[in-house]
Specification:
Elements (H helix, E strand, L loop, with lengths): L3 E6 L6 H16 L4 E5 L7 E4 L16 E3 H10 L3 E6 L7 H5 L9 E5 L7 E3 L4 E4 L5 H6 L2 E6 L2 H15 L4
């Protein structure tokens, strides 16, 4: 998938599109980690982002269990592979779920965590892609609510978002 694709996912639609986009993003990141990966979501939970029940991702990460793989497990693996991860969310207790689920040894200068009460932006941005729109990284955002999301892979569209996220939240360029 190249270029820009926009998706409107309604409450009555099949919910597979968003799950498949997240699987595409995070499996690609495991193959070739971004120098910096920004995850910005006012509401953030440790949702499953890879479905490894059939062993589809064993070749990317042999130690992954044959279950649905949570965001925190993928983040920990990306940190081990040298990626810097920047997470921005609101200061609400449940939003620390991803950070609190990370092993203590992965919480280093490679991980930047922001809590901002005024945060409303939403996106996941890496070296080669940007996912932005209305979706929070929560069960409701993924499974229940109507969401509009844009997935971009054109460098001239991704780079301005990378620079904007870096200016706002820090991280490597």
């Amino acid at each position: 998938m190249t270029g820009t694709r926009q998706f409107l996912q309604t409450a009555s639609d099949s919910r597979n599109v968003m799950s498949e986009i997240l699987q595409l993003i995070f499996s690609t990141e495991l193959v070739a980690p971004s120098r910096c990966l920004w995850i910005v979501s006012p509401w953030l939970r440790d949702i499953p982002v890879l479905d490894n029940r059939a062993g589809a991702y064993v070749s990317l990460c042999p130690e992954l269990p044959l279950t649905k793989i949570s965001l925190s497990k993928v983040i920990a693996e990306l940190l081990d592979r040298g990626s810097q991860i920047v997470i921005a969310t609101r200061p609400e207790g449940g939003n620390r779920q991803v950070i609190d689920s990370l092993p203590l040894e992965t919480r280093s200068d490679q991980l930047i965590f922001h809590e901002r009460a005024e945060l409303h932006a939403k996106g996941i941005v890496g070296d080669r892609f940007a996912l932005s729109g209305s979706m929070n990284l929560t069960f409701n955002g993924l499974e229940r609510l109507t969401e509009m999301v844009s997935y971009q892979t054109v460098r001239s569209e991704v780079e301005p978002l990378r620079l904007t996220f870096r200016a706002e939240y820090g991280g490597r360029v």
